[in-house]
Amino acid sequence: MADFHQNGNIATLHNLRTRPIVEMTYELETFAQNKKMSLILPCLYSELETDAMPRILDELSKVTYLHRIIIGLDRADEAQFRHAKKFFKGLNQNHIVIWNDSPRMLELGALLKEMGLAPKEQGKGKNVWSAMGYLIACEDSDVMAIHDCDIVTYTNELLARLIYPVANPSFPYQVAKGYYARIGNEKLNGRVTRLLVSPLLIALKRVVGDRDYIDYLRSFRYPLSGEFAMRTNILPDLRIPSDWGLEIGVLSEAWRNLAPKAVCQVEIADAYDHKHQTLSEEDANAGLNRMSTDICKAIFRKLAADGTVFTANVFRTLKATYYRCALDLLEAYYNDARMNGVSIDRHAEESAIELFAENIMRAGHFFLENPHETPFIPTWNRVHAADPTFLSALRKAAASDEAEFA
User: Could you tell me the CA-to-CA distances from 210 to 155, 249, 282, 303, 376 in Å, in that order?
Assistant: First the structure.
């Protein structure tokens, strides 16, 4: 059974294993009569060929409270888009596959570029942002959830628990962040959260002092999870990062726009496993190497925006402090894993810590050299202000692609 600890900063909604999922589903069906709920699935075409996606579709076919499912499809040609449409045809809910690489979508992207509002790079951030724009244009959903498409342990209970806190009209939450233990194949996973984010936040608190934002991020048990739900009224003013800082960026936006009582974290799964990124030690622009640098930059940018002064000396001290904190946490992770019969490769873990320590310096140097860098995609409110017809054009383009390639 889970604990019932509350950290005092944001609400933690545990899974106490005392309530059947059928009861929660019935309640969600009741909520759905007055609050329409939508699901966004940011998806690479290659994920359709994995074992995870058929399982996810099978589980989603059992869900009765969703009004709409929006699948954002990346890295697909015309034949692959047609195949994707057939692949998702088994969904029982109203759904649409948005072909992000279609000629119509590329034309809209060129228009954004002319206005100086185009996302700076392709990736999950742009995919999520585009799907949110489509949902805003539909103007018929009150609640939205997002989860990844590579979850090999997926069940529809994950979605129900994720969306419940923001769907329940008697709850105050505008944003719910999913959390879980990253255990798979009897291994302790979640390296970036365990070995980078957690010790980095401890080190930052020691080096730059108490900051409410640091305490806020430390309150989340799994800040890098790709699963979150929110009420759609906050979407138009939400800034989405285009790089690997998406998850930290969304939490930062919740911190910027909402009171702490409007944010919660919710336990959504006992077992969670998905595709693992490689460390990519030799390539700074790939895998966890790139991800760790982007995450550090996202945290540094937010702290700087709140008044923290960073210098080269601060980053050197931060690297040393982080390294010691990370090794101390590794000892705790190793003992926890051993006690529970879970394997952990200490050499590989220490190698990751060494890489992350270097990337803290790399991210710090980049921040000092480019203090005004803003990888955030413009909010949909700004796009609408620049071109009031753009959102309707986006919805029309997606509908036209759906009709033409049926």
Answer: 39, 20, 35, 11, 26
Contacts of 266 (CB under 8 A, 6+ apart): 12, 13, 161, 162, 164, 165, 176, 177, 178, 179
Phi, psi (deg, nearest 5) at residue 265 = -120, 145
Distance CA 162, CA 23 (A): 15
Give residue-wise pLDDT tens across range 84-107.
999 999 899 999 999 999 999 999
Beta carbons within 10 angstroms of residue 36's beta carbon: 19
Q: How far is CA 199 from CA 88, 95, 217, 312, 322, in A?
A: 41, 41, 12, 20, 6
Q: Which residues pair with 68 in a beta bridge?
A: 38, 94
Region 38-66: mean pLDDT is: 95
361-385: buried (b, 16+ CB within 10 Å) or exposed (e) per residue?
bbbbebbeeeeeeebbbbbbeebbe
Residue 276 has what pLDDT? 66
Q: Whats the size of the chain, residue-wise?
A: 406
- pLDDT score of 406: 74
**What is the torsion angle, in degrees rounded to the nearest 10, for the CA atoms of residue 130, residue 135, residue 139 and residue 143?**
-130
Q: Looking at the DSSP assignment, which residues form a beta bridge with residue 339?
A: none
- In tens, the pLDDT along 187-214 reads 888 999 999 999 999 999 999 999 999 9
Distance (Å, whole) CA 65 – CA 62: 10
Taking the C-alpha atoms of residue 193 and residue 223, their distance in angstroms, rounded to an integer, is 7
Six token digits for residue 242: 């285009």
Task: List, for residues 102-134, the tens digit of each pLDDT value.
Answer: 999 999 999 999 999 999 888 899 999 999 999
Contact predicate 50/44, CB 8 Å: no
Element holding 228 (H helix, E strand): strand 228-231
Cα separations in angstroms, 406 against 35, 90, 106, 255:
30, 15, 20, 42
Reported as type and span, the H/E element at residue 231 is strand 228-231
Q: What global pTM score does this model have?
A: 0.94
Give 266-296 as a 3 state SS string: EEEECCCCECCCCCCCCCCCCHHHHHHHHHH
Q: Which pLDDT tens digit goes with each residue over 58-89?
A: 999 999 999 999 999 999 999 999 999 999 99
